[in-house]
Every structure is written in structure tokens, then in C-alpha cells.
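Notebook B, p. 112. Complex prediction, attempt 2.
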Amino acid sequence: MKISFIGLGHMGAPMARNLVKAGHALVVFDIVKANVDALTAAGASAAKSPRECAAQGELVITMLPSSPHVKAVYLGGDGVLAGVAHGITVIDCSTIDPHTAREVAAQSLERGNPMADAPVSGGTGGAEAGTLTFMVGGTQQVFEHIAPILKAMGKNIVHCGACGTGQVAKICNNLLLGITMIGVAEAMNLGAALGIDTKVLAGIINTSSGRCWSSDTYNPYPGVMENVPAARGYTGGFGADLMLKDLGLAADAARQAKQSVVLGAAAQQLYQMFSAMGFGGKDFSAIINMYRTAQ
Amino acid sequence: MKISFIGLGHMGAPMARNLVKAGHALVVFDIVKANVDALTAAGASAAKSPRECAAQGELVITMLPSSPHVKAVYLGGDGVLAGVAHGITVIDCSTIDPHTAREVAAQSLERGNPMADAPVSGGTGGAEAGTLTFMVGGTQQVFEHIAPILKAMGKNIVHCGACGTGQVAKICNNLLLGITMIGVAEAMNLGAALGIDTKVLAGIINTSSGRCWSSDTYNPYPGVMENVPAARGYTGGFGADLMLKDLGLAADAARQAKQSVVLGAAAQQLYQMFSAMGFGGKDFSAIINMYRTAQ
Amino acid sequence: MKISFIGLGHMGAPMARNLVKAGHALVVFDIVKANVDALTAAGASAAKSPRECAAQGELVITMLPSSPHVKAVYLGGDGVLAGVAHGITVIDCSTIDPHTAREVAAQSLERGNPMADAPVSGGTGGAEAGTLTFMVGGTQQVFEHIAPILKAMGKNIVHCGACGTGQVAKICNNLLLGITMIGVAEAMNLGAALGIDTKVLAGIINTSSGRCWSSDTYNPYPGVMENVPAARGYTGGFGADLMLKDLGLAADAARQAKQSVVLGAAAQQLYQMFSAMGFGGKDFSAIINMYRTAQ
Amino acid sequence: MKISFIGLGHMGAPMARNLVKAGHALVVFDIVKANVDALTAAGASAAKSPRECAAQGELVITMLPSSPHVKAVYLGGDGVLAGVAHGITVIDCSTIDPHTAREVAAQSLERGNPMADAPVSGGTGGAEAGTLTFMVGGTQQVFEHIAPILKAMGKNIVHCGACGTGQVAKICNNLLLGITMIGVAEAMNLGAALGIDTKVLAGIINTSSGRCWSSDTYNPYPGVMENVPAARGYTGGFGADLMLKDLGLAADAARQAKQSVVLGAAAQQLYQMFSAMGFGGKDFSAIINMYRTAQ
């Protein structure tokens, strides 16, 4: 299938390469020329604008940093909706606020282009390996149409409901993740300070009611697990600044929905404080270091 | 074995009954006569004070509401340590602060009585069914000595380390549990307000990085799971006031250890607010109702 | 002077009337016809759009509910900047985010119209009485030009610095106010629960280091002061939902500036929870009721 | 008058010296010999225990670090109540929890010794200068009896109500102070990040509804005020660890009273985090530095 792919950053580039590997013909666009060159070297052809890019595809996929970028790339004069042929399906894989996702989808549909929001989890590692999880918001028909293509880039393709619910699922999951990671950091540090062996403590928590992914799969306390960021100086993984961005989306969405998120907002502020201390580039589990006692 | 059992409340009574069922000879004490009568009817004999009770056993087990009770029952003039024979092992199953647990254990050991703290999880249901988890703090020798006996009351008998670490494990786990439950409440309510089907959302979270016991085993959102308190009006289960007590122990222990627990303290205050509104007797997952919008 | 006045709501209407009383000729616009009628009855003339309205004035003043309204009224095809004559000064008295304020001011200046942001404090009472405080962001020249006219509507006209700083001053003040009010609520309720006479406690705080406007001028505990919302069932005053809006602006601005506001975000969530319980229309000091114990 | 004075630390020593200067005959006790020597050099006589010390006075004053010290010094075998003559009034100036204060006072009264709790504010500077504020809990009769003597050490002698209310007033005030200081830190840092001159911002806040002692008398932002800790590297003043102690007392008292203190608990945790980073010895207004962006 001929696929238009717009946005070739840390996530978009490996995703696009996996589509090429799966045998699709890609036409790509990015504002950074080097990003485009890397993909054309891999077999893709280049377009000069989102509009031109979208005009050539039987399917359009975008992967962009934030809501303003999505609005500009879709709704701008040189944007996707100005170029895409009637009836072509468009998929936005960016993580943005549900409100914007729904607004863009409505405009897309109005022009005759079914749209899905399909934010991912799994990080750059998952993007390289083709093992991302896609959380898809869109009609059942659109989901069935795009799921086989997304399979070239991911392992789990989940249908969350109507347009926007992909974003909702992602921000709700990450809201909870941001909270549980700090919860584990507090519990592990407290236990250590009170004299329990941290591996023993993690073992107990992981088989008890405190059990969670942040403890049993991604424990932030150094020495408890191997092959996690805590075991390699908190490099790699999911950056604290990315968690901060997602908690910001969650807090915003909560405000618009008139829902309170007391712990979520506290977590957001703690990651903000940690980031301002200069550690936004570390894996988000490094927040445990903000709880360490000075020597 | 002849076992002295002191404290026959909601937890202690079924625990003692399970020891009787396992063939042990029990001598019991409680300040409430009716509690004692229920156990003697089940085959136990009664003692007139903790001291008299402890004096008769080859092993002493206590199950009491809080630190002051433990101090009084162990260290008082008519207390356990005043009566127990030299060399007899004593086990306190109460959930109390690690500091007091260590202090009492030190005094017990000084008198020649090895001691273990062995707080439980599993609630009254687990106590009745004999499926409690025991978190044991004490020497390896003491652990090996008492584990077979605890097996009559529980399923998992975990050795956490030296004296006091049983309490540490329990409060660290419950600190995390108190946080994750509110995190799930916030995430589920936010998702519902943003229009995603709550069963779908729970399903996604439960297979993603937000996964936790509070979501996949004890989800607080009504209609998501069966056989949880949320499915029966938040009755039964683990009361909000008990969670509040444990978070208080955690906050206190953190203060003494000079560790900060930002989300833990916020969770404590939210359960306190919820309790003050009159809902302390509800299951702790009912805290989700504090996040509901008025109609 | 002939003044164009756009936005005749609860705040704008009495402000406009005070300008009429001061002898100015007003041309007004509002999307609600009844609001316009009330002002024409008071001597103003009516215009059919922001554009037409702005076109007639020697000075333009706007008073609008939120950032999107300000953008639409200023930058829309039928908006202020499309109509206002070159060189005319424009003043926006709305409370909005500093980022939007600066963006609109830049576009205004580009078209040859000096602009000031001049959000107010003092509520509808101050608007009626002409005793508002204006926090003005703009050049020194603009400030000197408009201060005498603002005097017809307010008592204190403060120059905060360049464009946007009026908004900054307002949201920083209200961020602090939202926090101190909850602080006073917690301190007063705690004192009452611990058995001190609340008037005595307020007296001590008001002459000690806990002293603040929320305690000495607007105490939320019933019976401590007269002539405050707490003395009349929390009616009148500054609504909880308005405080919630301002804390939202502060949290947003903090996010953009990469500053953490831990207590500010917690305060925002507490007002949100209070509002969701159905009390957003009460004075913001009513938040003390969320801390009351059920009877 | 012959006064027994027990506890000659940073606060107690200058307080005792002021009593000597006022012409009283002092008999003193402290566990640190050097502290005692300094006072005897100033004219006091020394006693060998709290009991001996208390036995000689017509009035007993104590100034101790915490609740356990107060219990030991009053209730121990060699303590105040074991020595003091029937009918003599005793005053505890320590800052401790109201519960302990009331418990000790009840035992004192039972033995025939009227007691007052009289915690102070004003720091070591106020102790040296004799300008402390005393918050007195006790009967009207006791208050009238001791106020003239306290006047030798302080400027404001405030009657708060029955026994324990001195402590209640102090912890409620300091709870609020701990919150407002962080509130000011957040507001000032946010304003600075958003581009307003910080002196201008402080000026606006100080004449608006955000006004508070932490802003208008003790502003934490460097350069805004002279003669405050922020102007001298946050040395001197009221240490962050002392604020942390008082917030701990407030949180404990709140727990016992079943009152929630959401912002108070958050403030406590932030000071704890700041202290753990190694800054507990700095003035508490230095907490603003935890909000600074890394360079």
C-alpha cells in the first residue's frame, strides 16, 4: 500500500522504517531534511509539504510532538486536509489532548476522510522493535481497516472506542503510571530507611496488594532489578520530561472535564521540580533520587 | 502445642479458632468477656490476665489494635513479659509502628524470650479462611520455629528480616496501596468523564504500564469488576479507617526516618477528609466517590 | 472622551456605567442584547460588532470572560483590530493567561495600536463602587495616558511593567490567595477541633507570623468576623469557581514557564473537588466546609 | 522571686538570663554542664536534678526540646513533680503536642500544682532581646499570676484559654506560616519566571488579597527586602528543621483530632525533602531554592 508518513523524529523514523520493511511504499515529510534523507535512503520517496505528502497516499499516518503541531500539520493551508484525496483514512499517532484530537477528526470527517487517533506506548525501543502498543480511537470500520497496517509497527492494537478515546486511554494510563512510580519510590525509600532489605521488600510488594508495573517490572530502586533504567544510571527508558508532558495533558483534560486529580497534579509538580533541577532527560524512575537523603 | 492467644477481636477470634481446629490447645485472654466465651465454647480455656495467659503457653501470640495496647499488654505489671516462662517464643500479629515493635522485642529478648512481629494482610475474610499473609520480622531461627504454626492461620508466611521488618513491609506495602487506589480512582473517573468505556479503560490499563492490584484485582469503579466492594456498595473489604490508620503509621515512620512521602501524606489527608465526611466505615476503594461530580 | 466598551457582563456593565457617570461618551457592544439595552438606557450608544464599536472610540476597553473570547473579539474578522483607528490605545481588562495577553498586544502594536492589559481585583462590589484595583501591563507612556480614565472605575491603578505583567501580577496574587485561604481554613478548623476559642485563635494569628489577608480581613471560620461571606452563609464575595479559573491560569502559566507550584496545584484540585460537590457558586472561603467533620 | 529554671539551651539560656537581669533569684538545671556554668556565672545557683531544682523555687519554668523530654523532666522519679512544693505554679515553655501538655498539666494539678503551657515565638533573637511572644494556656488566675514574670522575657503575653491552648495556638499559627511561606515562594518564583519585576510583584501582593507576613515582613525572594534571611544567604532566622518539627506536631495533632490538613501535610513533606537535601539548618524561607531552575 502507498502510505504517506509525516513526522520522522525519534519515534516516527523507526515506525516508518518498519512500514518500509513490511513492503509498503512510503512517501514521507519532515521539517528536518536529515530526517527525510534517512528515510529516502531506506527506500521512501520525499514530498515537499504535508499537503503534497498526503496527496499521494492511500493512507496517511502522522507522528508529531504536540497539539499545536497536529493542528498546523492537519489544518494549515499546506496541511494534510488540504491535500488528501476524498475517502482516504488518516491516522494520527501523536500523543495530544483528546479535545484537539476530536476537533481535528471532526474536520477530517467533514471533508470525507475517516480519522483515527492512535497514540502509542513502548518508547523508542518498541518503535525500533515493532512492538509498540497502539491505542486506537475511531469507528469499528476504521479500526478494522487500519489494524493490519499498524501491526507492522506494533504488537498490541487496541480499540478504545470512538475518536479521541485513544488519547483518553493513553493519558489515563500515564496519569496512573506517573503516580504509581512515585508511590513505589516513596515506599522503597521508606523501607530502606527503616532497615528492610530492598529486594525482600520488592518481593513482598510484588505478591501483595501494593503490586504494580512500576514495582514488579520497572522498579526504581537501584539493585532490585536488572535490565531496568535503575540498573544503568537511569539512562534510556521513558524520559522524565515526557512523563511531565503527559501529566500536563492529563491535568488539562481534567480541568476541562471538571474532574479533580489531586495525586496526579502533585505528581506533575514533583516531576516538574525534578526536571527544573536538571534531570528532565533522565528516565522518569529517577524521580526516586529526589527522595534521597543528602550524605 | 499449648498456645497462649491474647486479643480475640474481629481478626484474633477467627485466627484463634483456626489454631484450635489445627489441634492446638489454646488458653486465651481478651478484655471483652463475650469474646472469651466464644473461644472457650470452641474448646479454648480462659485466663484472667495477659500475664496468667502467657504463663501457660509453649508459644504466645497476640493480636491487638495499636501500639499503646501492645505496650500495655507486653510491658504492664500484669502483662505478657511478667508471666511468660524463660525461653518461650512470643509473636505479635498486631499492625503497629516498627519503632515500638523493635522496642518491645528488645525487652522481650532481654528477658530471654525470642520475639517476632508478624502483621498480616488478608482481612477478616482471610482470617476466617486461614489464608492470611504473615510478614514476619525476627531471626531465621525464630522464623523456622513459628512458620509451621502460622501455617494453620495463613497461606503465605514471608520472612522479612530482623525484628521490626514485618511491620516495615506491611506499612510500606499499604502506603503504596493507599496511593495506587487513589491513582486508579483518579484515572478511572477522568476516563469516564472524557468518554471512554470504563471496562475498556480498565482492560487497557491492566495490560499496560498503569497496571496495579488496585486496578486489576480491586477496581473501585462500579461495574468494571464483580466480587469487589465496588460491586456491592463498598461494603466489606478493607475499611477506609483502617487504611487511614496504616497511612498514619507510615507517615509517622517516615517522619522518624526523615524520609519524605509526598504522595503518601496527600493520600492520608484525602482518606482523612473522606472519613470525616462520614465514610470511614466503607471499603477504602469508596474514596472514588469523593471524586464524583454532584448531580 | 469617546470610549468604545466591549463586554457588559457582571463586571463590565458597572464599569461602563461609571465611565458614563464620569462624563465620557460610550459606545458599547455585547453579544447579549439585554446587556446592551441596559447601557443605552444609561446613555451609551450601541454598535453592531466589536469592529464597529472599536471604530468609533478614542479609546477601546474590553472586559471578557476568558482567553478564547479575547482572541476572538480582538483578532476576528469582525474584531477590534479590524476596526480601530491607527494610533488609538486599547485596554483589555479581562483576566487571561499572560501568553495570550502578550500575543494580542504584539499584534495590536504591529497595527499601530498601543495596548495594555489591565485585569482588576475587587469583584462586582468594587466594580459598582468604582473602587477596583487595576494591575496594568504596558509602557510607561500608555500607563500615564490611561491611568486617569481608569480612575473613574477604580481606586488603585498600579503599573506592573511591560505588556502581560498586569496578568502576571493578578495570577500570582490569586495563586497565593487561593493557597492562604485553604491554609487559614486548615489552621482554624484544627484549632477549633483542639479546643481553642476560634476568635482568640484568629486574634493570635493576626498579630503573629501566620497573619494574612485571608485571616485578618476575610476569615472563613463562621463567627470570627462580621461582614465577610462566612457571616452570611458564604454568599456574595469571590466565587469558588472564579478562584478555580485563576488557579487554572496560574497552573498553566507555571507549566509553560517550567516552574513547579506544588501547593498551588493542590489548592486548584481542592477547589475543583469542592466545585464538583456542587459548591462552585459559593464564596471561595466556603472551602473550609470541605474540612468539616460529618455529624 | 525565687525561680527554678530547667533547660538552658539556645532559647532557655537567654530567657533565664533575662529573669536574672530582672532581679529574680534563679536556681537552674540542665543536662549539659557548660550550660549550667554559663548561668551560674551570671548569678544563678545550680541544682543537681529537675527534682532538686524544682524543690527550691516559688515558681518553676521549663524550656525543653520535645514531648518526651517534657514527660521525663516532669514525671520521672527525679522530675519536677517529685520535688516541687504543693501549690507552686509550674510553666512549660517548650513547644510540644497539646495532648502531652494537657496530660502533664492534669498530673501536675492533681498533685496541687497549677500549670500553664506557654510556648513562645520570636526565636533566639527574641529570647535575647526579651521580646518573645508567649502563648499561654491555663486558668485566668494562673495567667494573671505569671504574666508579670513572663514580661521579663517577652513583649506579648497572650492568654489563649485553658491548659493546652497555648500549644494549640502555636502549632496552628506555625502550620499556617509553613504554608504561606511556600505559597509566597511559589508566587514569587512564578512571577519572576513570567517576567515581572519581583519588587513590583511583592509590592502589589502586599497591598492586595495575597498579603501575608511571609511576603510583607519576611519575603523569601532575594533582593526584595533587606534585613531578612533572604538578604543574607538564608542564615539566622527560624531554621527549616524547626519548621519541620512544628509541622510534624500539627500533623500529629490533626490526626488525633481527625482533621485533615492537606496543604499542611504537603508543606511538611516539602520541608522534609528540603531538609533531606541537606538544608535543614538554613532559614525556612530558603525553601524557595527548591523551586529554582537548574542553570
